[in-house]
């Protein structure tokens, strides 16, 4: 789920930890090994805290890792991000996530049983399959082919000879070239550095038209600290020339005699038409209405999901009652046979 999602979307759109938590939550639902969303969020937060380092040393080495307060705002934000990522995964994969239940691990068990190889080879092939999940093989190759490639690598590392007359992969409808390609991808993984989390900045949303209509504040470049000062205005030069023309013998001329250059008076900025303010007000009302309607739709979806869960729970209880009735009938048949 995680690899397939990021084959279609960018790391700059969704936080990788939120997508990892959402993928894990969906996987538990698909594999009938359900865990609550709270458990997943606490696990994601714990892993994040354990990865914190200061001066190259883990921050919480040798001491308990702090837990996330369920009543805190941070918990609500993490939960909101995980739910957003879960909805995005379902949309990108077309809500057909049940098709991803076909894992290569199942094929390894079947093939190893058919080939009757030792348990050591099975364990080594299983390890190669676990490592292959760090690659994109699950998005580019079929799970049975990945399982065969892991058996090939395990046999080479353990020193077990596989049948070659006829080639053993032909019994499983595979080709030597496909197994070689998959094996090369898995082996290339061991030459890479260990994975680490790199924060990718989020993409900024596009600027709305209403924000553009407000305009940017006017600011002089000289207001910035350390900005280059402009040359003196022409008036200063005129004053300097006038002062140099004053004779030395006479008394100093009064200040009023010095010609000055008065800057032209800028006309006042025209006020925006009244309709412009009303248009901005209507735009703001529309945004508020959209937010309110979005919140109402979200509550409606939550109620629908709760109804779906209640219906599923009722179906489960009905199935349990049917099984109990079948068991009761079976016991009665056993008693009848014993009496006969």
UniProtKB/TrEMBL annotation:
Keywords: Cyclin. The keyword Flavoprotein does not apply. Residues 106-191 form the Cyclin-like domain. Residues 295-340 have a biased composition (Basic and acidic residues). Gene3D superfamilies: Cyclin-like. The keyword Ion transport does not apply. GO terms for molecular function: cyclin-dependent protein serine/threonine kinase regulator activity. Residues 223-234 have a biased composition (Acidic residues). InterPro entries: Cyclin-like_dom (IPR013763), Cyclin-like_sf (IPR036915), Cyclin/Ssn8 (IPR043198), Cyclin_N (IPR006671). Residues 209-340 are annotated as: Disordered. GO terms for biological process: regulation of transcription by RNA polymerase II. PANTHER family: CYCLIN. Belongs to the cyclin family. This is Cyclin-like domain-containing protein. The lineage of its organism: Eukaryota, Sar, Alveolata, Dinophyceae, Gonyaulacales.
């Amino acid at each position: 789920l995680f690899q397939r999602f990021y084959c279609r979307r960018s790391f700059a759109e969704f936080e990788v930890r939120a997508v990892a938590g959402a993928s894990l939550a969906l996987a538990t639902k698909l594999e009938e090994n359900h865990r609550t969303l709270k458990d997943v969020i606490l696990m994601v937060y714990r892993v994040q805290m354990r990865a914190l380092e200061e001066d190259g040393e883990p921050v919480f080495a040798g001491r308990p890792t702090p837990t996330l307060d369920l009543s805190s705002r941070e918990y609500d934000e993490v939960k909101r991000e995980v739910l957003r990522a879960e909805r995005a995964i379902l949309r990108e994969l077309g809500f057909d996530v049940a098709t991803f239940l076909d894992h290569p691990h199942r094929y390894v068990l079947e093939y190893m049983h058919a080939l009757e190889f030792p348990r050591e080879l099975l364990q080594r092939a299983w390890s190669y399959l676990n490592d292959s999940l760090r690659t994109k093989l699950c998005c580019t190759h079929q799970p049975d082919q990945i399982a065969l490639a892991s058996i090939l690598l395990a046999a080479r590392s353990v020193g077990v000879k596989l049948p070659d007359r006829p080639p053993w992969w032909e019994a499983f409808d595979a080709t030597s070239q496909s197994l070689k390609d998959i094996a090369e991808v898995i082996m290339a993984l061991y030459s890479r550095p260990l994975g680490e989390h790199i924060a990718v900045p989020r993409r900024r949303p596009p600027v709305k038209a209403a924000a553009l209509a407000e305009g940017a504040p006017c600011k002089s470049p000289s207001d910035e600290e350390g900005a280059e000062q402009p040359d003196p205005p022409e008036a200063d030069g005129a004053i300097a020339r006038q002062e140099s023309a004053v004779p030395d013998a006479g008394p100093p001329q009064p200040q009023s005699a010095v010609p000055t250059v008065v800057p032209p008076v800028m006309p006042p900025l025209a006020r925006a038409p009244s309709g412009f303010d009303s248009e901005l007000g209507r735009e703001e009302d529309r945004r508020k209405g959209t937010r309110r309607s979005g919140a109402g739709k979200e509550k409606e979806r939550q109620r629908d999901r709760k109804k779906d869960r209640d219906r599923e729970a009722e179906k489960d209880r009905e199935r349990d009652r049917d099984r109990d009735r079948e068991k009761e009938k079976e016991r009665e048949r056993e008693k009848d046979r014993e009496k006969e």
